[in-house]
């Protein structure tokens, strides 16, 4: 799945940092798992809005994952505030997993 963004260079940096954030139940990072849908860099407000999902609305690790995403973005962009927009439409599915993720999971 491709991540929608309004700043390709900053998105590349953000995604590189987010590759260190794993879903603890799956063991795969949130980027290759396809949980990150959009990164919106609001320059006037110095804010990043990360629209993302979880593998399930009832994911027991959801709070941990969103907190880890926030911390990873804050590490790469300390001058920005971070807002997580957690959505479940469109729902996450296996088709969201990257080729690297499929290899990691043995598909």
CATH topology: GMP Synthetase, Chain A, domain 3
Q: Structural class, from helix and strand content? A: alpha/beta
Count up the helices: 3
The neighbouring-strand order within the major sheet is 1-4-5-6
Could you state the CATH homologous superfamily? Fe-S cluster assembly (FSCA)
**Mean pLDDT across residues:** 96
Order of helices and strands: EHEEEEHEH
The CATH class label is Alpha Beta
Report the major sheet: 4 strands, mixed
Please give the CATH architecture.
2-Layer Sandwich
Low-confidence region ranges: none
Ends distance: 16 Å
Give the count of structural domains: 1
In total, how many beta strands?
6
Query: Which percent range fits the helix content?
Result: 25-40%
Radius of gyration: 13 Å
Strand content is 15-25%
Described by the principal axes of the CA atoms, the overall outline is: globular
What this model shows, in words?
The protein has 107 residues and is of the alpha/beta class. The protein has a single domain, classed as Fe-S cluster assembly (FSCA) (GMP Synthetase, Chain A, domain 3), CATH 3.30.300.130. It is built from 3 helices and 6 strands. The protein has helices at residues 8-18, 62-76, 99-105, and strands at residues 4-5, 22-23, 28-29, 36-42, 47-52, 81-86. The protein has a 4-stranded mixed beta sheet with strand order 1-4-5-6, with helices on one face. Helix 2 links the parallel strand 5 and strand 6. The longest helix is centred in the middle third of the chain and has 15 residues, at 62-76. It is globular and about 40 Å long. The mean pLDDT is 96.
